[in-house]
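QUALITY CONTROL LOG
STEP: pairwise intake check
CHECKER ROLE: data steward
CRITERIA: each record must contain a sequence immediately followed by its structure tokens, with no blank fields

ENTRY 1 OF 2
RESULT FIELD BELOW
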Amino acid sequence: MSDLARSLDRYTYRDYKSWPDDFRCELINGVVYMMSSPNDWHQLLSMELSIQLGTFFRDSGCQPFAAPFDVRLFPQGDELDKVVVQPDLMVICDKSKWEGIGNCKGAPDLIIEILSDSTRLHDLNTKFELYQRAGVREYWIIGSDAVKICQFQPDVVEKIYDLNGSREVSSTIFPGLVFKF
């Protein structure tokens, strides 16, 4: 598999599906980006937010998911799309994007990324641009001391919550969705 990671070739979702499950990566514009295992803070926060998402969206028609879950932001019928990401958490309200296919075909409504040292710039820049271009409605970027919420549609609106002061953070697109930190 090391030859795969070093290759300069461009890959597609069709290639991605053929790789072993333990080969943790994302595909951005056909380039393989390796993923490391999250630290304990990341895991604990992800689990807590998963519980809160599950409770809020129970019986709502929207479905929360947690990584690992393939998100094909720009799906092509022939599986030649070149972007496959693994957001930490997401909410999908259009069942046709996920029902029975084991991945998300298109943009989730809400994506949450929990920052780590190794992914900080990737999440803040590369994924930010991809999520905005794909039509994600709201993107949360959670660091150890702040949460940045970006509403992309209809206009870009950004809110930053300082977690040293505020312990509650509200969604801009889902009224009543309040995370308690």
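ENTRY 2 OF 2
RESULT FIELD BELOW
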Amino acid sequence: MNQVFPMVPASAKALWVMAVILVPLISLLGYSAYASRHTKFEVSESGLRIHGGLYGRTIPAESLVCSGAKAVDLKADPSLKPGLKTNGIGLPGYQAGWFHLKNGEKALVFLTDRSSVAYIPTREGYSLVLSVKNVPVFLNSIRDICR
């Protein structure tokens, strides 16, 4: 004859601890999912403003090295691919935050499409690697603010 004995149920305290851990994590993942589809890059005379995501910021025009800005296909130029993530989000199809590139450079990355990438070095010790629709027009806008 088999006898089954249930465990004493956990107190509400255990459920609250799990909620305190899970709610911020789920919120962060939800916000990251939203940002992966809604981040925007605004070019103005004052510089480049990245709207969206946890790593959005404004980079002043004088910090951009426009002569080094170029269009990149990361499938063809693997040296600029993000490698080691130092503080960021690395999901399949979406990378955002601080990475070291394969060439050793530090970079602020907002990457979804590896074939439509703008690479922009800065005077601040890092580069930008950005998935942008219409990269040539974007880079022309960047070059215009550096003149």
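INTAKE CHECK: passed for both entries
DESCRIPTIVE NOTE, ENTRY 2: The mean pLDDT is 92.
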